[in-house]
Design a protein that fits this description.
Layout lengths: L1 H20 L9 E7 L1 E17 L2 E4 L5 E6 L6 E2 L4 E5 L2 H26 L5 H22 L2 E3 L4 E6 L6 E2 L4 E4 L9 E4 L4 E8 L11 E6 L2 E13 L4 E3 L2 E11 L10 E18 L4 E3 L2 E8 L2 E6 L1 E5 L3 E6 L6 E8 L3 H6 L31
Antiparallel strand pairs: 1-23, 2-12, 2-17, 3-10, 3-11, 4-6, 4-9, 5-8, 6-7, 8-11, 12-16, 13-14, 13-17, 14-16, 15-16, 17-22, 18-19, 19-20, 21-22
């Protein structure tokens, strides 16, 4: 009987301890000191941006003379060369007008020559000759404008007229920007593609023509494309108080299935250091103009001022303040999670004795205890 009473008292004592002294707060997870050695490696600094694939050249052509479309010589998808005839207007009326104008010139010249031979004043006849010549030249220009030629090499990407349509009063335009020209015909260079990307104003001073880059097209993530920076806009664009500068990159050997208008990201290499002493970027702290790292020496941590060179995303070049194999301290990472510790431990709770559920029987989330439970 005394033995049973002792067991009951012990059980009550343990349950009371958890009821009155266990608040459910666990000790903070221990942190371990992580270090990395200063080692020799290549360090690359890059500038990243988002952009859009564009054609290197887009030209639009429209008839400058008015008339009825007589022929359309190409269709969408045809490859053309600069100067190739695309379409013509009905020239019958224009040819008649040119013949009349030429006859008028001949008559005006004859009249002036007769006046000269007769010793008469020729001022008015000289003006008549000049006017006839101007009318003839205008007739020639009108007739020439009735044949439309390709403004550049490329692929026909738009045809806006058909035989029998009325056309005219247009012209030729080209574009190397995101604005696509419009006209009776649009010619696009689909071979020499470029990338237009907007770079943050904080990074634009690092850019210069000739820098290499890697382009990743969203639709072709497994086919990175090498590129070179060819131009940086002199003037910025501002949207929602964000200032950016446009850049143009030439693509080297783009895949055949690349299309203008596709979205892409670009990483431009702005600085490189080969065989440089480097440490992880996470180990570096900069306050104002002072840059430091924490070095672990003989078990003690020491703050040390350093100077940096090329700054990559993962590693930075250290030009002074460290020696190879110096151990720099990295940011601490907790060894465990508090919630996991709370849920996975042995406790005395429900069913501690007699099946009556001890204090703390409501349990807590995070895991299942081993033992009688609490």
């Amino acid at each position: 009987m005394n033995g049973v009473l002792a067991v009951v008292l012990v059980g009550l004592g343990v349950g009371g301890y958890f009821l009155f002294f266990d608040t459910g707060t666990e000790p903070a997870a221990a942190a371990t000191t992580r270090t990395a050695a200063a080692t020799t490696r290549d360090v690359t600094e890059t500038v990243t941006a988002a952009g859009t694939v564009q054609s290197g050249y887009t030209g639009a052509a429209s008839f400058s003379s008015t008339g009825t479309v007589a022929t359309v010589n190409v269709k969408v998808g045809d490859v053309v060369t600069k100067g190739q005839p695309l379409s013509t207007l009905d020239t019958s009326q224009a040819r008649l007008q040119l013949t009349i104008a030429q006859n008028n010139v001949s008559q005006a010249v004859t009249n002036r020559d007769d006046a000269v031979a007769a010793g008469k004043d020729t001022d008015q006849l000289d003006n008549a000759v000049n006017q006839a010549v101007l009318a003839r030249d205008q007739a020639k220009s009108t007739l020439a404008g009735m044949t439309l030629y390709a403004p550049g090499d490329g692929t026909v990407t738009s045809v806006g007229i058909a035989v029998g349509d009325k056309a005219g009063s247009g012209g030729t335009s080209t574009s190397a920007t995101s604005t696509t020209p419009t006209g009776n015909f649009v010619i696009t260079d689909l071979k020499n593609l470029t990338l237009r990307a907007d770079v943050a104003e904080s990074d634009v001073s690092k850019l210069k023509a000739g820098q290499t880059a890697t382009v990743t097209v969203n639709a072709l993530p497994t086919q990175p494309i090498q590129a070179a920076l060819t131009a940086v806009d002199l003037l910025p664009t501002t949207a929602n108080n964000v200032v950016q500068y446009g850049t143009t990159l030439a693509l080297t050997s783009p895949p055949a299935n690349l299309k203008p208008g596709q979205s892409a990201s670009v990483s431009i290499t702005v600085a490189e250091a080969q065989g440089a002493l480097a440490v992880p970027a996470a180990a570096v702290q900069t306050v104002g103009a002072v840059t430091t790292v924490t070095v672990l020496e003989n078990g003690a941590e020491t703050r040390r001022t350093v100077e940096l060179g090329v700054r990559g995303d993962q590693y930075v070049q250290v030009t002074s303040g460290l020696a190879e194999n110096d151990q720099v301290v990295l940011p601490s990472v907790p060894t465990g999670q508090t919630g996991q510790q709370n849920g996975n431990r042995t406790g005395l709770g429900t069913g501690g004795f007699g099946g009556q559920g001890g204090a703390g029987g409501t349990g807590r989330t995070g895991g299942t205890g081993t033992g009688p439970g609490r």
